[in-house]
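Homework help board

Subject: predicted structure for assignment chain

Our instructor gave us this sequence and asked us to write out the predicted structure in token form, then describe one feature. I got the tokens but I'm not sure how to describe them. Can anyone check?
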Amino acid sequence: MRRIKSTLSIVIITTLLVTSCKNKTSNNSIKKQDKMAQKNLKNVTIEALDALFNKKNEEKVKTLFTKTYIQHNPHVPTGLEPIVGFLPVLEKAGTTIKTHRVFQDGDFVITHNTYNNAEALGAKEIVTFDVFRMEGGKVAEHWDNVSPIVKETASGRSQFDGSSEITDKEKTAKNKQFVENFVNDILFGKNPDKITEYISTEKYHQHNVAIEDGLAGLGKAIDYLVSQNDMFKYTKIHKVLGEGNFVLTMSEGEWHGKTQSFYDLFRVENGKIVEHWDIVQEIPTEMAHDNGKF
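My token output:
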């Protein structure tokens, strides 16, 4: 009887150990698959941009974009066909794209790009934030903010240079909430006195063309806008997207007496905002589709 009980105990323990090992292996496998899927979505996005703007490859574009592609750029009709139909224009102009940073939040891939020979997109040289929603491994939806490149800026930094390395991935959720709180407290003006709780007083690299580096530079710019009765106003956050130390907010508001789209990219380091890029774009009253800007 004792031998039977002993044998049963050994069998149960062995079964538990084997099951535990299988579960660990399965969990590790899932994590590896998730990381691979995340990497693949970034790669697909970069490949899609390259096919569209550098190679102008129609067959590749049709493969990498969904047939039901949804467009939020106010000047481009929705759907895949307008994108394909735009290829000859891009080819004739010699338009090219360069991606300076890319990060991912779930099904969303965010890219920070510059385009050359891009008159058809607004100016010869432009900088953009492009946000893509991926579906079934293809590009399914697109939002963006676009601005001409300004050569001389208040800080001496360009609208697209600076850090691009993604770190602190385990802090993604925390950093997204931190930045959202910053937008609510500071940019919405709910608690402006808390600014030093968010922005580093030691290092703050500024890429807005009209604002100098540092917290003092930001204060100087705000004081000037207030003196001109032209202070920007944030009214709604539409999306907060991030990966690790990078967080992008897509907000709506007013400036110069007109409705604006505010895209703000923040880099967070040691619990403080240390770098900022942005593009502000007026939202037209009439669009090439009914999908809205956001």
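Reply (TA_rk): Your tokens look well-formed. For the description, you could write something like this. DSSP finds six helices and ten strands in the chain. That's the kind of observation they're looking for.
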